[in-house]
Amino acid sequence: MTLRESLSAEAVHSSLTVNSFASPVSVSAALRWTMDPDILESVMGTFRESIQVANPKRPKHTVSLEALIDTGATYSWVPADLLQRLEIKPLETRPLKIASGKVIRRKLGLALMTVRNKTMPTPVLFGDRGSEPLLGAVTLEELGFSVDPIHRTLVPATAYLLSLF
Q: Could you tell me the residue range of the domain that residue 145 belongs to?
């Protein structure tokens, strides 16, 4: 089962559990909401950004993608077949808690990501085939970006350093 299918199944289950009087209309609405990225985008205030992904060992060979900005995700997520095409190798497998509370495991590697002419190596999860690429919080912070949710855009962020002197 893919992440999207798992989330969809969990959303329907949650809808039925929370609302014991759930009608077929509410179940249908829950499925549409979790399956349609355009509905998710308009409801959640999310947006997409053009990114380039490369293998740190071959930085000139890139793949361009549109990624959903997801500050609720710790790591970035790119379909595994694209990472394999770039010859990015998994370094380890990480447990991840999804919105339903369920824990899944996915491989994690290191990729070069470029957003708005800023490039940085960053951890990336090997996503399900055909899944939507996500730009997560770690990558955004490493690249020096924050999110302006009102204007649905990335803005420069100032990093923090705790000083003891």
A: 48-156
